[in-house]
Amino acid sequence: MHEILSSDVFPDQRLPVAGERIAVSADVAPHSHAFFEIAVVLTGTGTHVSAAGEVPLERDSVVVLRPGEWHGYADCDGLVVRNAYLGADIFSFLSGALSSGGNRARPAHPAVQHAMRLLEASIDDPWTLDRLAASVNLAPGYLIRLFGRTAGISPMAYLNRLRAERAAGLLIETDLPIATIGAMVGWHDPSHATRRFQAHYGRPPTGYRAAFRP
User: Fold this and answer.
1) Number of domains the chain is built from
2) Which residues form the HTH araC/xylS-type domain (predicted)?
């Protein structure tokens, strides 16, 4: 299943908000996102397909998807939707922006964008800060500073967030054992995987699957 990553949608990770108008002229295969999506039907009809089942769509229908949740479209007839994309940490971002007086975000440095793409493409690799910095030809300390200015977190924290989001999607979409899912996202020790996942979502993988899987 194809996953649309944050770097595909948000050129500036410090401002994780985007939108577009899409004419859905054919079926859309199931896919997942590493961010929130809100879709509002402007015209036409269709069927929204997700883990929750099939839901008919018509004008003014609204679809809300959390990070890691898969969905697709079928039986589309003149379907046009307005999509809004919100980064997984959008609420923390808004809280920080309000408390800091809404300081303007800086554009992402090309090396940071490259580093993000590397992490997203090889999420299960045994990444270290030194290896990532060498891959983008920067000193580790300088990469940390650039990453902080762009994403507000360190490179390794960003990697852990990606892994948690990918694991969340697999928990919902598959019946794979939690240990297997952990290994697929780069957490090869089950206890470590559980701690990392719970640190991100506030509940262990078993609890997340029980709470959100239909």
Assistant:
1) 2
2) 113-211
